[in-house]
Amino acid sequence: MAKVLIVDDSKLIRNIIKDELEKNGHQIVGEAADGKIAVSMFKEQSPDLVTMDITMDEMDGIEAITEIFKLNSKAKIIVVSALGQDEIINKAIDMGVMDFIIKPFEAERLITSVKKAL
Description:
The chain is an alpha/beta fold. It has one domain (3-117): Rossmann fold. The protein contains 5 helices and 5 strands. A 5-stranded parallel beta sheet has the order 2-1-3-4-5, with helices on both faces. Helix 2 (35-45) runs parallel beside helix 3 (61-71). The longest helix is centred in the first third of the chain and has 13 residues, at 11-23. The N and C termini lie close together (10 Å).
């Protein structure tokens, strides 16, 4: 069972991810609506995995990923975003994220990605 931090500005998306991961035996250690809160929660919780949105207020996902990798260069991050632009996908992958899932997504796609990352 992995400890997971879910980061998305949409409560609905956080709930969908949370439900799917809990159904598959994972523990949700926190939810954040923006990158700034995510970085702070990452410090406190040391999750095994982070699901990260890109477009958020305060601090976007790319900035949050940068900060999290500064805290732990081996952090496991899966991006879940509606932004399917190649430039952003490539940047995130180059930074070291495990996967990039484009919203809307199938539950199976999320679970497969999480299994691979862990």
